[in-house]
Each structure stands twice: as structure tokens, then as C-alpha cells.
Design goal:
This protein is mainly α. The chain has one domain (3-186): Hypothetical protein af1432 (Orthogonal Bundle), CATH 1.10.3210.10. Helix content is 64%, strand content 0%. The protein is built from ten helices and no strands. It has helices at 3-13, 16-36, 40-49, 58-67, 83-95, 100-107, 118-129, 138-143, 149-166, 173-185. Helix 1 (3-13) packs parallel to helix 3 (40-49) and helix 3 crosses helix 7. It binds 2'-deoxyguanosine-5'-diphosphate (DGI) and fe (iii) ion (2 copies).
Length: 191
Amino acid sequence: MDQSAMLQKVKERLPEKRFNHVVGVVETATELAHEFGVPASKAQVAATLHDVAKFSEREWMRSVIIEQGMDPLLLDYHSELWHAPVGAYVAASEFGIQDEDILNAIKYHTTGRAGMSDLEKVIYIADLVEPGRKFSGVEELRQLKEQGLDVMMEASIKHTIDFLTSKNQPVYPDSLKCYEHFVQQKGNVEE
Ligand code: DGI
Ligand code: FE
Ligand code: FE
């Protein structure tokens, strides 16, 4: 399936507003991929499919998580998190995607994780800072592009964790481990 056929198929599964977000993520992911030496074609496929399960039925997603042997911890957290791993499943089963890095970029686009690949970082960041995102602080995140992919990723995961804790929401362990990974990488841990 070529990129435009894939985009068309995604369009049929999503409301217009969400589809416009997907187009924005494709645009930003393409720019970031060029900037950081990630294959743009992989970034485009992952960006196109990242929210493919966003409007899937909740109970269907629950059954996929159980039947596919995904981390059962997901079921203890908000169902908003489920569309990411289930989206990776849909990308493989309905769109024939086999590339593990692309599938992981979809799977971890909501939570991040420790030891993300560059493609995973590109998709995580593009999802957060695409042109349709308007939250306070988004422009500062976009400008970190000049400081490198890891600086952008660390600030992005930190933003998400700050946002969730400010709303007294639980933070999925993968997000915390992702943040810790960056902090420890810099050797900033005080004894
Ligand atoms: O699907 P999008 O809206 O484009 O963005 P997303 O997949 O990054 O995030 C979907 C929602 O999930 C968003 O409202 C924030 C929320 N979220 C992200 N990480 C966590 C989380 N919610 C909880 N409870 N815990 C998390 O770690
Ligand atoms: Fe998402
Ligand atoms: Fe998204």
C-alpha cells in the first residue's frame, strides 16, 4: 500500500479533526526525520498510522490487549493509553506493516519508554508539537529542535508528565522510565 492509499484508509476511520491532526504529525515527523537522519519514509508510515485506533471501540481494544498478550498493566490505566499498542496491532494486521521500529513508534507514541529509537522519538515529539497543537509551551518545545533530538524528547516527556501530575492523573510507568533514562544518561542523579 502506498502512502496516499494508507492516508485515505486512515481518513475513513477518523473524524475530520483527528485526521487533520494526523496530517500535521506526518508533516512535522517528516521535518524532524530529515533534521535527525531518520528515514523519512518510515516516519511517514508511523505518523500516518499512529492514531489509527484512536476511535476504536473500548471493549474491542480491551479484548485485543488481552488476546494479543500485551502488558496487562495497561488495563489498570486510562483507556486513552490503549489506542497506541492497539494501533500497532492494527498497523500490522490490517495494513501489513512488519517493520518493528515503525510498529514500536506507534506502540509507544503515547507513553514513550526507556531506550527509544530515533524513529520512536521523532513520532512522540511530532505528535506533541504538530502545527495543530496550541498548548502553552508548545512553541518553546518546537524551538528545541536546534539543540538535538534528545533535548527535544526529554523536554517533551517532561511536559507530558508535568501536565498529567498537574491534573492529578496517574503516569504510566513507561513514561517515568523514559524520563529517568534521560536524566540518568546525563549523570545528573544526586547521591
Ligand atoms: O492521541 P493523541 O491525542 O494525539 O495524543 P497521545 O496519544 O499522546 O495521548 C492521548 C492521551 O493520553 C492524552 O490526553 C494524554 C494521555 N496520556 C499520555 N500519557 C499518559 C496519559 N494518561 C495517563 N493517565 N497516563 C499517562 O502516562
Ligand atoms: Fe495518540
Ligand atoms: Fe496523535
